[in-house]
Design goal:
By secondary structure, the chain is an alpha+beta fold. The protein has a domain of about 160 residues: Barwin-like endoglucanases (Beta Barrel). It contains 8 helices and 8 strands. Helix 3 packs across helix 4.
Length: about 325
C-alpha cells in the first residue's frame, strides 16, 4: 500500500462493539429506536441484541430491560447457543420438563441438575450433542459465569466443525498449547474475534449478557459470509495521493482499503454502533495496523459514523467482486 501507512496517527480509539439489524442498501439507515429501555442505538451491542431478539433467540425482562451488563452463566449461555443454531425446539423443551424434581441420573450425570430446573432440557440437549461437559466432581455448575474462551468453544461445538491445527501462537495472549487455541485460530480465520493493537484477544474475560449475545451473533452471521473488524478513515492531507491500484485518493468518493480483496470489489460496511451502512469500492491496500480491517474514505466513514469516532467496529460483506 502506498498511503495507508500514514493514516493511523491522528485517529482516536473508542472501545466498544455495537450492533443493529442490517441495512441492505447503500447508505440506508435504520430508524432510531430502542430494543429495550437500556439498549438503544449507540449501545455497543445494539445490532446483535436487536437481531437476536427479533429472531427469538434472546429476550429481556418483564420491566422492559435487557440488563446488558449482567454477567452470563453457563446455563444461560447454553440456551442462547442452542437456540441460535436451531438445535433445540419448543417440543423438545416441553417433553423434557415434564415430571417432578427428582434427579435423572440415567440421562444427566450431574449432581446439581434436576428435572424441575428451567434449564434442564437445554443441558440435556447440550450433553446429547456433545457441546458441554461437566467437572471432575460430577457437577455442571450452571450458575458459574463463562469467559470468552468458553464462549467460542460452545459456539463452535454446536456445529461440530473441524478445528484447524495450531502450529504457532494465534495471538499474543493465546498460546498454541492452550486448550482454547484452536477455537481462537478458527475465530481468527472467520474474522469474528476483535484484536487490540497489541495482538491480544483477552480469552479469560468474563462475558456479560450483551457481550455473549454479540459473540454468538458474529458466529452465526459468519456462516453467511459476514466478517467483523474495525475501520478508520483517511487523513485529509492524503487527498490526491496515489493508492495501490494507481487511482488517486479522493475523500468525496466511496472507496476503501483492504489487505486482500481484489481491486474493484464492492463491500457493504455496516457500523455496528448504529446500523448505518455504506457500499464502498476497494481501490487500495491496507490497513497495516493490527486489529483493523478496513480504511474508508472520509466521505464513506462520515456516512455511517461521526468523524470524531476515529475508529469504529464494523461488519462487512462482499456485494460484488
Amino acid at each position: 500500500m502506498k498511503i495507508n501507512k500514514y493514516i493511523s496517527g491522528i485517529l482516536v480509539l473508542i472501545g466498544f462493539v455495537s450492533s443493529v439489524h442490517f441495512a441492505f442498501a447503500q447508505e440506508e439507515v435504520l430508524p432510531v429506536e430502542a430494543v429495550y429501555t437500556d439498549v438503544d442505538t449507540g449501545h455497543p451491542e445494539y445490532v446483535a441484541i436487536k437481531y437476536m431478539s427479533e429472531n427469538g433467540i434472546v429476550s429481556g425482562y418483564p420491566d422492559g430491560t435487557f440488563k446488558p451488563d449482567n454477567l452470563i452463566n453457563r446455563a444461560e449461555a447454553l440456551k442462547i447457543i442452542l437456540e441460535a443454531n436451531k438445535i433445540i425446539d419448543p417440543v423438545y423443551i416441553k417433553d423434557n420438563t415434564l415430571g417432578g424434581a427428582s434427579f435423572n441420573a440415567e440421562n444427566l450425570p450431574f449432581t446439581d441438575i434436576y428435572k424441575s430446573l428451567w434449564y434442564y432440557p437445554y443441558i440435556k440437549k447440550g450433553l446429547e450433542e456433545g457441546i458441554i461437559n461437566g467437572y471432575p466432581d460430577g457437577t455442571f455448575k450452571p450458575s458459574q459465569t463463562v469467559n470468552r474462551a468458553e464462549s467460542f468453544k460452545m459456539a463452535m461445538g454446536s456445529d461440530k466443525i473441524v478445528l484447524p491445527e495450531v502450529t504457532e501462537n494465534p495471538f499474543a495472549d493465546v498460546y498454541k498449547d492452550q486448550w482454547f487455541a484452536p477455537y481462537f485460530l478458527e475465530a481468527k480465520f472467520r474474522e469474528i474475534v476483535y484484536i487490540n493493537m497489541q495482538n491480544c484477544v483477552n480469552p479469560g474475560k468474563e462475558m456479560t449478557r450483551s457481550h455473549f449475545t454479540e459473540l454468538v451473533y458474529r458466529y452465526i452471521r459468519s456462516k453467511e459470509g459476514h466478517k467483523f473488524g474495525k475501520a478508520s478513515y483517511y487523513s485529509d492531507y492524503l487527498e490526491g495521493n496515489g493508492t495501490s491500484s494507481g487511482e488517486p485518493y479522493r475523500a468525496a468518493e466511496l472507496t476503501a482499503a483492504h489487505l486482500t480483496l481484489p481491486f474493484g470489489t464492492v463491500v457493504r460496511v455496516t457500523n455496528l454502533a448504529n446500523g448505518k451502512s455504506v457500499d464502498v469500492r476497494i481501490n487500495d491496500r491496507g490497513p497495516y495496523v493490527t486489529g483493523r480491517s478496513i480504511d474508508l474514505s472520509k466521505t464513506a466513514f462520515g456516512t455511517i459514523a461521526s468523524l470524531g469516532s476515529g475508529i469504529i467496529y464494523i461488519e462487512y460483506q462482499i456485494v460484488t467482486q
